Amino acid sequence: MSTKQQNNEEEVDLGSLFQIIGRAFSRFINFIVTIFIGLFDVLIISLLFFRKHAIKIIIAGVVLGTVGYFLDSNKEIIYESKMLVKPNFNSTSQLYSNIKFYNDLVGQEEYELLINTFNINEDEAKSLRGFSIKPIKNENDIVSGYDELLASVDTISLRNYKIAEFKEAFTNNNYKVHEIKVRSTKNKIFTKFDGAILSSIINNDYFKKLKESENVNLNRSYDLYQKNLKDADTLRKVYMKALLDEAKKPTQGTSIDMGSRGNGDNEIQLFSISRNLNSNLSKINEDKAHKTEIVNVISSFQKIGSKEKGLLKNKMLVLGAIGVLGTVLILLLKELNGFLNNYKK
User: Fold this and answer.
1) Contact at 8 Å (CB) between 301 and 184?
2) CB-side exposure of 229: number of CA atoms within 13 Å?
């Protein structure tokens, strides 16, 4: 095949390729234009619909919004206060159960039990509107929980247990920090609840025994690691002294100490052992600080509660939105019914 024929074939192939690309690009542009035209048509139809029914929609929104305004004006003001806690010794489940019990007492208007439980008067008991608890969700709790699980059991048995599976089994009770909330129509009674809520857990004999046992184990481990650290430091000092004494001895000729590399490795191993012992001591100290209490209080209830907030609690906005959306839905259904009737004809 001549060079001229080969060049002509290459030109034909390139021309075909450009034609294919051009047709694909043209179709893409047409597709984009069609979408924009469709969106424009929807916008125009929507504007025509709202122009036609604007008065009806506005009236419905204003009427129901006005009703909501009067309901908001006459409703009681509710205050809330929050406490952050970090339970230990698997006491989270009991804490959740207790909070649910207190909330049930409020819902069933068991004022006498509320008075006895929290040492409050009848007026204060009747002002209560609810107790609730929820976890402060933190992804780090899941990761650290997974790491602790791997460290506490045989890793061979958990080789196929992925963190995604662990995350699916992770419940609200497994998070470390939890928020307890109290709601009341009085804004200066919240400091009366933290003591009673905590005492129901910290005075539990089961959790008290767990705390004592855990602290005994931590103290024993701390003493053991301290002793091992002292022994390791003593051994390092003896070893370094031996090396210095050996270095002071006169050498004959040009002999080379073939054990110098091994000596360096031994020194590194002793240093690594001391570092690991120090790390374990730090971790035990941290555990002792966190586990001196059955429930650690991060922040107590505020002395003065804050007003409940939230768009869903604003009846004027909620009812106004319901009026607008409900009217639009009814009018759309009416338009659809008219279209179907004309379609039959």
Assistant:
1) no
2) 15
According to the model, what pLDDT value does residue 69 have? Answer: 76
Q: Residue 92: exposed, middle, or buried by beta-carbon count in 10 A (0-12, 13-18, 19+)?
A: buried
- Asked whether residue 106 is assigned to any structural domain, the reply reads yes
Q: Please give the distance of CA 29 from its chain centroid, rounded to a whole number.
A: 45
Which pTM value belongs to this model? Answer: 0.65
- The Cα–Cα gap between 23 and 179 comes to 61
Q: What is the mean pLDDT of residues 120-145?
A: 89
Q: How many domains does the chain have?
A: 2
Q: Please report whether residue 165 resides in a domain.
A: yes
Write out the residue range of the structural domain in which residue 54 sits. 29-76+310-335
The amino acid at 111: Y
- CA nearest to 305, candidates 152, 150, 185: 185
Tell me: do 103 and 34 sit in the same domain: no
Q: Is 16 helix (H, G, I), strand (E, B) or coil?
A: helix
